[in-house]
Amino acid sequence: MSEVLAPLARPVTALRGVGPRHVELLAKLDVATVGDLLLLQPRRHEDRRTGWSIAQLPLKVPATVLGRIVAQGTNYYAKKTKSTFEFILDDGTGRLHCRWWNLPWLADKFRVGDEVFVHGKLLSLKPRTMDHPETEIVETGDEPSAHLHRIVPVYPLTEGLSQRWLRGLMWRALEEYGEQIPERHPTLVPTASSRRLEATNGPERRLEAAGTDAVLSLTRAAAIRSLHFPAELPDTELARQRLALDEFLDLQLAVRARREKLLTNAKSQPCKGDNHLIRPYLAQLGFTLTDSQTAVLREIRADLARGTPMRRLLQGDVGAGKTVVAACTALMALESGQNVALMAPTEILAEQHFRNFTLWLKPLGVSVELRTGSRKTVESRESRVEGRTGQPSALDPRPSTLVIGTHALVEDTFTVGRLGLVIIDEQHKFGVAQRERLLRKGHYPHLLVMTATPIPRTLGLTIYGDLDVSVIAHLPPGRGAIKTFVRGPDKLPKVWAFVRERLAEGRQAYVVYPRVEDTDLKTGTKAVMAEFEKLAKELAPHRVALLHGRLSAEEKDSVMADFRANRVQVLLATSVIEVGVDVANATVMVIENAEQFGLAQLHQLRGRIGRGAHDSWCVLVAAKLTDDARERLQVLEETTDGFAIAEADLRLRGPGELLGQAQSGAQQFKFADLTRDLELAKLARELVCETAQNPEV
Ligand code: ADP
Ligand code: MG
């Protein structure tokens, strides 16, 4: 394969007309080889087949005309600190004035008599004027066929490169190498000839698969040609999809390789456990596991008993009860004499887990430690001496330990022996790289990652293709309902009155703001610290406290402790409370500037209430209620189903927020777009899976 790829791996200097200066400039566009150049994506295309005449130019619509400069000049003013450069273009049908502010050097670029393409929007008719249009001087040089009478590409440029030079270079590169562009995945994407055969055999099947079939009917070489010099404008989109398919195939193959490497190399630690810790743990819980939770634990136990390490994603909506599943999984490993690391994205959540797990596991003789950025290590110390668990190895007679922490666990200073299991909570807040770094602290430990962000299945398979997925499908019984309302800021007095009523009934409340310190006057975005005094007065005599990311760990800790113990009734917070925080008596949440948050994030925030038997209320106060914002927020009024919300978020905002850090792998896509190309992602997965079953191809 490498000899086939070799021509495209040649440096750009292999192309005629590329000197050392060009190499530097092209490097700024991430172009080093001929192959890189061929994948440089045009910013747009310009149809020069018919072209507008100046006399017919439409107002305020981007258009291109070709003409000759008949006059040009520069006006200086404001003591020569400012200038306007202008030329007049004539194409025989009329004249067009083109103006630029404060770019006096343009006077040296253009000469009267130059033939120039001008692309821009016509601002006025009398005289016909364009401001700051894009220009391209026609030269009598190479490749006239690249620039005229066709659809031409317009590339992103860097200072010193001209559009025309780059287009000419691309044209030459395609002439010279176009025939040598190999299929990237020749065994996965059937060759054009075999497809033609198939097509004659089964026309019905072709019709069925029309959507992706058009993409498959294109070779990679043809796609790259159409990407730059399409016969018709829509061809560029098809070309993009074909190249996107290759990118999805790259990703799927990488995922499969990671998986196969794991299966062949990894010998997992035995972590099945013997129930001697789980039994007493479950007995003191005060509730029984739901069927969903039990089913998931059965899957996990089977994983832990296998010879290859578990790689499992646990999905469950906010409040579904993932923590208990994590605890049981940890106990299986601890029972087997292994140590366990649990990583959470915020200090508040890590501390909450630390407190809960200490409460649950310390009596069982398990040692629990906390490691966050601000705390190197805190231990529930008694456990160290309180006897052993499992069968600690002769080399290391300490009892098994559960270490809980933030990303501090990923740092080099943290080491742990006998690491049998890694658990990552709210995994979408971490990247794949962090996950892998934590895993490397042990010898192929088992991995359980948890997320409350449900992602549509195909997207999940694309991003998390190397993980098995378990789902907690139902919330535990006995939860009160959550009612959600969207309100304008004019209704705030009523909202506070409502909050006071709930507080008088003994409930607690969260009030969430997007910012910490200062209100952003331009957008009217409120900040917790700025609102504190006003709200403390508004809600007195109930006690109000502040919680945000700038507090120290100790301060956060004591605020949370006060809130949990109901010494404080109202928590004014930023989105630091988004993940994990669990206080059942808190039944009211007011989110100000709700329009600033994404739907998935609002759903997470709202998940802080509705955790007990009382009914709960969430009020979304939107400062600027545009139609857009209203449509988005209404989704939350209508449903508490995390899955439906995630899909709406995907539709309305794209995959960015939904995927969080997980998309870092996907960001390397040049052509693929996860919002638009899920069909292609699915096709790529099918093609890769098919070959896995037919190893001979
Ligand atoms: P999440 O899935 O969002 O992490 P948690 O694990 O924090 O949810 O659980 C939310 C609440 O539900 C906790 O207070 C937990 O004790 C409770 N819970 C979990 N499982 C059950 C169950 N089977 N029955 C009743 N309550 C449960
Ligand atoms: Mg949780």
Report helical residue fraction: 25-40%
Mean pLDDT: 84
Distance between the termini: 15 Å
Unique bound compounds: adenosine-5'-diphosphate, magnesium ion
- Rg: 31 Å
Structural class: alpha/beta
Which ranges are low-confidence, i.e. pLDDT below 50, for 5 or more consecutive residues? 1-5, 199-210, 380-397
CATH class of the largest domain: Alpha Beta
* Principal-axes shape call: globular
CATH topology-level name of the largest domain: Rossmann fold
What is the number of domains? Answer: 4
The number of helical segments is 26
Q: In what order do the strands lie side by side in the largest sheet?
A: 13-12-14-11-15-16-10-17
- Specify the CATH homologous superfamily of the largest domain: P-loop containing nucleotide triphosphate hydrolases
The proportion of strand residues reads: 15-25%
CATH architecture of the largest domain: 3-Layer(aba) Sandwich
Description:
With 697 residues, this protein is of the alpha/beta class. The chain folds into 4 domains: 44-154, Beta Barrel (OB fold (Dihydrolipoamide Acetyltransferase, E2P)), CATH 2.40.50.140; 183-265 and 673-697, no CATH class; 278-472, P-loop containing nucleotide triphosphate hydrolases (Rossmann fold); 482-659, P-loop containing nucleotide triphosphate hydrolases (Rossmann fold). The chain is 38% helix and 19% strand. The strands form 4 sheets. The chain has an 8-stranded mixed β-sheet, with helices on both faces. The radius of gyration is 31 Å and the shape is globular. The two termini are 15 Å apart. Mean pLDDT is 84; it is low at 1-5, 199-210 and 380-397. The structure holds adenosine-5'-diphosphate and magnesium ion. Adenosine-5'-diphosphate binds at residues 287, 289-290, 293, 316, 318-324, 452, 476, 582, 611.
